Amino acid sequence: MIGLAIHTSSPELGLAVRALDEEARGRSQVWPLGRDLTAYLHDCLSDFLQPYDWSDLAYLAVARGPGGFTGTRLGVVVARTLAQQLQIPLFGVSSLAAIAQHQLLSHAANAASPPHLAVSLQAQRGEVFGAIYQAQAPGVTPVLPEALYPQVDWKTQLSTWPTPYHLIAAEGGLAHAVEGVLALAHQQWQAGDRPHWTTVLPFYGQHPVPSVSRG
Question: Which of 82, 103, 147, 198 stands the most exposed, by the fewest C-beta atoms within 10 Å?
Answer without folding.
Answer: 198
